[in-house]
Amino acid sequence: MRGLLVTGTDTGVGKTVVSAALLAAMGAEGEGVAAFKPAVSGLDEEPDGGWPADHELLGRETGQAPAEVAPYSFGPAVSPHLAAELGRIRIEPERVLALARAAGAQRTLVVEGVGGLLVPLTTTFSVCDLAVELGLPLVVVARPGLGTISHTLLTVLHARSRGLDVRGVILNRWPEPAGAMERSNRTTIERGAGVEVTTLTELHGPDPRALAAAGAALPWKSWLGGG
What we know:
Layout: E1 3-8, H1 15-28, E2 33-36, E3 39-40, H2 54-62, H3 66-69, E4 72-73, H4 80-86, H5 93-103, E5 108-116, E6 120-122, E7 125-126, H6 127-134, E8 138-142, H7 148-161, E9 166-172, H8 180-193, E10 197-200, H9 208-216, H10 220-224
Parallel strand pairs: 1-5, 1-8, 2-5, 3-4, 8-9, 9-10
Antiparallel strand pairs: 6-7
Helix pairs in contact: 1-2, 1-9, 7-8
């Protein structure tokens, strides 16, 4: 299966925007693309800054229906395992895996995780377990500011301890101009993780052209193993 799994150091770091940008850039290059997110929560919350719900945004870039992108959706803004418990729904890892593999059977697949790498989808199956089962290379999205060094290096360290191939780190919402702290964070993470760290400035709305341009600036071809 050809694709990437986009994870983060935390919730709210911008994984969905990065995933949508990657899909937009791949599609613009003629790649057949599909998106998958095992679960989406927080649908009871008001949309933030004109951005649609995660599965809606990803589906816009691939032509998939939101329910095809995310098989489980929940109103409360809590971890999927708790949202499922509150809704008296059972998330089935076997179903999640089967749907992800089917989505990526004939298209380049971008899987967006939920929150950080160790967020539980069930009490016994995490986003990291999903990544291991799918075997896709990992891209880690992180914040550029204070605290990001430890969060990012811990994420990379755990991913590698599970045998995952971390292809890159993206410091999202990169300020222009960047300060001494942000520049140092980038260098320190790159040195400590031994992986290329790229940056992405903040996008302020779901404009398809802006998403495609942002994705085109990322080294997604090398992350996929295609140069």
